[in-house]
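ok so for the tutorial part 2 we go from a plain amino acid sequence to predicted structure tokens. step 1 is just haveing the sequence, like this:
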Amino acid sequence: MLGRALLPCLESDHEVVGVDLQDFDICQETAVEKALRDLRPDFVFHLAAYTDVDGCEANPQTAQEVNARGTRNVARSCAEIGAVLLYVSTDYVFDGSRERPWREDDVPNPLSVYGLSKLRGEQHVQSLLARHFIVRSSWLYGPHGKNFVATILRIARERDELRVVDDQRGSPTYTQHLALKLAQMLRIHNYGIYHVTGAGNCSWFEFAQAILQLGGYDRVRVVPISTLESARLARRPANSVLDNLRLIESNLGALPHWMEGLAQYLKEGQRWSEFVLSAPDPGKKPFQLGVTGL
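step 2 — the prediction. this is what the tokens look like for a chain of 294 residues:
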């Protein structure tokens, strides 16, 4: 989802090679080494990850293999060829215990296997490469991938009531906006950790309300529920709002507000088959929705 948004942002000014799992598996160290030696990139965007939060909780070994050791493999190969690495991480490295937004220098304390595996990926990048960016983002949505917005609209066609978590807050981030900012980071050399999210924040419940209103489904009822009621396998932070301080200090500018991103996504989505909406069936039972991570 993010990779397909990023490539067009880079191709006008750079020679770009996009690779995916069919090209090589980041869990296979020798395959990563060979690919990067052959390609000799100056800059690597590392977007590959296992992002199913509950899936990671049920399969911790796979989570560590992909998100931690896979990232180590990429970082080692970047160090070998002298490439700069940008690693996309997550708001779930924090435990959500603070009331204020999380700053880049706050100490992480993940609650889930997913968050821990992404944090270990960060640590590998920091220990192996001097020239690196770690970009923590959150609540991604956009075309070409499974996301909360598309799920809400799909379920709204089938149900007249949704039950959505209202005690977790974060910043929804449109992949097109994030991709543009990642491309701009090629111009700076102030390496380190950056928080890059849509401006503003909301709960998942508030996000669902906005999606239905802007998507033409305002007659579908949304019922707020607690995280406990959602009965998800992995723990989620109550507050994962990120302060984008370093982004502003670097003169790159903040991302647009998440509502602006949502409106743009829905407007552009009129062309996509997953957004061919129909009226909900009022006879359907309520649907309870949990949430994933980045």
